[in-house]
Amino acid sequence: MIAIIGVLIALLLPAVQAAREAARRMQCSNKVKQLSLALHNYHDTYDSFPAGGSPFYAEDNSSLWKYRTSILFTILPFCEQQSLYDRYVSAAQGLAKSSGNPVYIWTFDDTNYPALRETINTSPIPFRCPSEIVTPATGSAGRSNYVYCSADWADTINNVNPRGIFPTKTWRGMNFLIDGTSNTAVFSERAMGQTGNRRVVGSMAYVAGANLSQSGTPTSSTNCSVAACLAAQAGRDYTSTVTDSDLAGAGYPASYWMDNSPSRNAFCTILPPNSINCIGGSGQQNENGRVIASASSYHPGGVQVGLGDGSVRFISETINSKTTGGVDYCVENGPSPFGIWGALGSPNGGESTTP
Questions:
Q1: pTM summary value
Q2: In what order do the strands lie in the sheet with 205-207?
Q3: For the segment 142-191, what is each residue's pLDDT rounded down to a tens digit?
């Protein structure tokens, strides 16, 4: 009898686990949908989408470093997070008034304005995928599994992205989506980073040298080499030549959700979902380098992607991106070189998003 019960449990357990994951995936899909719809509500209010990096109590000059406020923070009032938004705004206003200085999103003042740190360190439930395996640590950088699309472009924090809907310090409207809202990705997922994690999902490799250079546009293999990024990968792990100290770990992927840094809170449609993440440079906190940030999740086989029309698709990690066929770098205009996946990220490339 005990043996029979054991066999039945063994047979039922996979089915139960699959049913639970199906429920988590549905919850995740609903969250992505709400974020995509929040963009529409923002657009209805301001007649544009939010900038990838917006000013926030910052001086209005040419320094892009002062434009770091992320899309997720900007749309908080449009996704039922008005109280979180108001709490931070109130604290920032108080600090700006008392100090006479601009307040940036990384400004902390535990003594007089604890709401600043509290807000930044919060990991709002609407921003967390139920299938995520990492529990955000209390008192650390706030985490979000949902990230904006930086198109088929190896982005960097200091440049205006010519391909994406959400470039730094630039507000683009619905008319930028020439390929159609139903053919353009706006949100997806990224797994949270873990210190010392050697798995491709949830970490990021540094690619030294000029292969992901900030100084030049990623329109040649000199400034953006997909091959150099892929060379750091062996199966679903990083190669043995990459040590733990070379991995971004918890420092980058899905951290500081209030920060617009592409290395932290964006994904690009270059490598297919659940591929390697790479950033230029050779040391921690080198966010000046260009980044190939892949969408990723713990849903088996792919990720949820929110489109410009508010719909959500589950995109398989086997989607065609042409990156295994020798395509090595980005283009500044025209059709995406990265297959169907690249076409989904490109708002105005004129490509088809179906095979």
A1: 0.89
A2: 205-207, 278-280, 291-292
A3: 888 999 999 999 998 877 899 999 988 889 999 999 988 999 999 999 99
Rounded to an integer, what distance in angstroms lies between the CA atom of residue 310 and that of residue 19?
A: 26
**Domain coordinates of the chain in residue numbers?**
25-345
